[in-house]
Amino acid sequence: MDERYFKNLEFDKIINQIVNLCDSEPGKELALSIKPYENVEKALEEIEKVNEAVSFISSYGNISFAFKKLDEILAKAKIKSSLSPGQLLSLSRFLSLAGKVKVYLRNEKEESSFLYLREYNMRLTNIKELYDKIDRAVMSEDELADDASPALKEIRRQKAQINNKIRDTLNSIIASSPKELQDPIITIRNGRYVVPVKQEYRGTFKGLIHDQSSSGATLFIEPMAVVELNNDLRQLEIKEQHEVERILAELTEDVGKHVDEINENMVVLKELDVIFAKAKYSISTDSTKPILNTKGYVNLKNARHPLISKDAVVPISIHLGESFNTLVITGPNTGGKTVTLKTVGLLTLMSMSGLNIPADEGSDVAFFDNIFVDIGDEQSIEQSLSTFSAHMTNIVKILNNVTSNSLVLLDELGAGTDPTEGAALAMSILDFLHRMNCRTIATTHYSELKQYALKNEGVENASVEFDVETLKPTYRLTIGIPGKSNAFEISKRLGLNDDVIDNAKSYITSEELKFEDILKDLENKRIEAENAKEEIEALKNQVESLRQEYEKKIKDTEREREKIIEKAREKAKKILENTKATADEIIAKLKEAEKSDKKNKLIEEARLKLKENINEMEESLKKSEIPEYKKVPKDVMPGQTLYIVPLDQTGIALSEPDKDGNVKIQAGILKMNVHISNLRETESSEEKEMEKGFAKYINEKSTNISTSIDLRGKTLEEASIEVDKYLDDAYLAGLKQVTVIHGKGTGTLRSGITRLLKMNKHVKSFRLGRYGEGEDGVTIVELKEK
To answer: Sign of the CA dihedral 317, 322, 323, 328?
Structure first.
């Protein structure tokens, strides 16, 4: 197909909208290549995939397919070039996404409903072992976690100890030599810990000079007491770097083993991203599944141009390819003829590209081998072509390449030249296309083409409606009736003198006037038929609505009856159980009385128990099922919410009680008269205030939360539960930063808390404590803002 025609139909704008709905960069690139498939089987398969995705989104919600290209990362891994922590983190996020999508697509209950999505799910590989290893080892874009290896953990433990010794020693020096120092601080120069010493104490302060201030007044000296410790620290840093490089090389090698699986996952997620973008587009445009055929049959029902706002677009119904193959559309300018052409062409391209279309269900679309378009002014200044020449050049190309399985869309056929010659040329072109047996839709102003369509078999007239009263088009398409010019009526409405109009009519032949009168009569009859049809449809809908309302009332009554019977059964069962228990107790007492010398006393006790039980049963039967806080209203005001006892639901009062005590009530869609004795007051304002007070109490409680939580001595499972709850409370209380105290110990609790903080939705960032904050024994957590 000539993609120039795609642009004429604005197919590129539809593609751009789908591209914007894709989540991933690779998905967007793939979506840009959307075009009609080469055969109908591929298009039908893609349509099925899209509709599975539509159903899946409706049933299980949406999911993001966002991921970045991993080609460079995988290429490095393949040649064993060590990946950086940031690259490993990107890979870890992708592996996590693949796992989430696999879980999302898993649907054991309805496997047969999503055949294509299940196939994609089978192609996805959940490489959990690699993901867990990277997740455990990589902490951030540029840092590995302590748990990446036992050796790294030990090196960092030793580093922490030496750091503490250096700081303790330097703090002691600062405390004992305040006059020699420019400031009582510890700083770093060339990777070594130093203190700022005044220039005049250079000779007395023992140590190695590493730097000086720009003025020369301050020297940054490494005291001799920490030189050896700094040396040890440097050695550990080198060891740490070697261990980090070893770990990264090992992780890179592990990635290299799974390159093929990761590549396949990328292909699957990229394709799924585009399929779900098509599905989201379908949902946003209220589109439906087209019925594709290879018979050249088009039957669009209430089709809407997808680039026109839903509020402004007027649906059209159009069919072609069964009783006629050529359709000639006539009507005024701006009446919707061109939009009709574009709608048919665009929806055909969308269907052939595996997309749903904005039309009613059951719309048929033919799968053509080519779509040819001649729409709009394609005048070329460079080629010095007139509008007519430009159109004719395009039509020549169309006629040279058209086949019996082509769709041809021609706008204003024959325009731009002498009307007589233009009309003759237009009819000849339509003759040629009709003989080729292709599907053709042409718009025109020429009345000769209206008569051409009436005379030739397989050619049909259609028109776009124009309201003479408002002098505005209605954009409605009618097949079977040619459009009337309306030139005289419009001129008359605009104030043109009757004499001028009558004189104009004298220049038209009687046959032409008679033809226009027939068209006018046909149009009036069509409008009458349409109005009658609308009235019948309205009555039909009214009857259907009444039928549904009646059936609903019957069902509601049946449900209410069942509910009452069920309540009565439960009540009777409870009474029976209580009575049985009392009877057993009385029988036991009577048996005991036979053997006892206190016979009369025990019999009297049994008699009193039996009487008490009977009284309880009678009281129970008198009790209402209505909650005690609901009372019969003394006064009813319109707008008041009331509980309706027989229906067990609430309603709104529409009137005050009449002289018989009946109140008009609306419950849902039903309006009814209910006696005031069957109404109860709903929840009181005092009870609502109590609820508000409770909410206030909860809020006050959340704001009094501590800024730290101590987990020392707890198992990882206990600590995880407590931290989750604590972070929720801290977030609700609006705390910005909190401290999690886990102690140093073996580091198991700290590692577990680190993994938990990574996944918590309230956590913005976290770090180990610094000197003076608790160091490795605490984690400082920064929370997101509410």
So the answer is: positive
Q: Which two tokens stand for residue 575?
A: 């009474």
C-alpha 326: how far from chain center: 42
Amino acid at 588: A
Structure tokens at 296: 């050249």
Bridge partner list, 709: 740
94 & 185 share domain: no
Q: Which candidate, 655, 634, 635, 652, places its Cα nearest to that of 643?
A: 652
> Residue 9: exposed, middle, or buried by beta-carbon count in 10 A (0-12, 13-18, 19+)?
buried
Residues counted in the chain:
786
| CA gap 277, 43 in Å, rounded | 16
Q: What is the CATH number of the domain that holds 452?
A: 3.40.50.300
d(CA 576, CA 86): 73
Residue 697 banded pLDDT, cuts 50, 70, 90:
very low
Domain boundary among 662, 683, 704: 683
Instruction: Show Cβ contacts of residue 498 under 8 Å, excluding neighbours closer than 6 positions.
Output: 492
Tokens of 735: 């705390």
Q: Is 354 annotated as a binding residue?
A: no
Q: Is 182 exposed, middle or buried (0-12, 13-18, 19+ CB in 10 A)?
A: middle
Do 373 and 414 have their domain in common?
yes
> Has 334 been labeled as part of a binding site?
yes
CA dihedral 425, 431, 437, 443 (to 10 degrees): 50
In a domain, 357, yes or no: yes
Indicate whether 554 and 611 sit together in one domain.
yes
Q: Is 262:78 a contact under the CB 8 Å cutoff?
A: no
Cβ–Cβ under 8 Å, residues 390 and 374: no
Strand, coil or helix: 197? strand
Query: Is the residue at 617 inside a domain?
Result: yes
Q: What is the secondary structure of 136-147 as a DSSP string?
A: HHEEETTEE-GG
Q: In this structure, how many other beta carbons lie within 10 angstroms of the beta carbon of residue 205?
A: 19
Same domain, yes or no, for 561 and 698? no
- CA separation for the pair 441, 460 (Å, rounded): 10
Here the CATH number for the domain that contains residue 10 is 1.10.1420.10
Does residue 513 lie in a domain region?
Answer: no
Predicted TM-score of the model (pTM): 0.61
Q: Is 337 annotated as a binding residue?
A: yes
332 is in an annotated binding site: yes
Computed from CA positions of residues 585, 587, 588, 594, in that sequence, does the dihedral angle turn out positive or negative?
A: positive
Contact at 8 Å (CB) between 247 and 137? yes
Do 457 and 314 lie in one domain? The reply is yes
Given 683, 703, 718, the domain boundary residue is: 683
Q: Tell me how far apart the alpha carbons of residues 248 and 337 are, in angstroms, rounded to a whole number.
A: 66
Domain that holds residue 563: 530-622
Number of domains in the chain: 6
Q: Are residues 696 and 671 in the same domain?
A: no
Give yes or no: residues 441 and 320 share one domain.
yes
pLDDT band at 203 (very low <50, low <70, confident <90, very high): confident
The per-residue pLDDT for range 61-90, each reduced to its tens digit, is: 888 999 999 999 999 999 999 999 999 999
* Sequence-distant contacts of 139-147: CB under 8 A, at least 24 apart: 139/85, 139/754, 140/85, 140/89, 141/85, 141/86, 141/89, 142/84, 142/85, 142/86, 143/85, 144/85, 144/244, 144/247, 144/248, 145/751, 145/754, 146/747, 146/751, 147/747, 147/751
DSSP 287: -
Q: What count of other Cβ atoms lies within 10 Å of the Cβ of residue 115?
A: 11
Average pLDDT over residues 740-744: 85
> Domain check: are 701 and 576 in the same one?
no
Query: How open is the CA angle 483-484-489, to the nearest 5 degrees?
Result: 150
pLDDT at 497 over 90: no
pLDDT given for residue 602 in this prediction: 59
Whether residue 506 lies inside any domain: the answer is: no
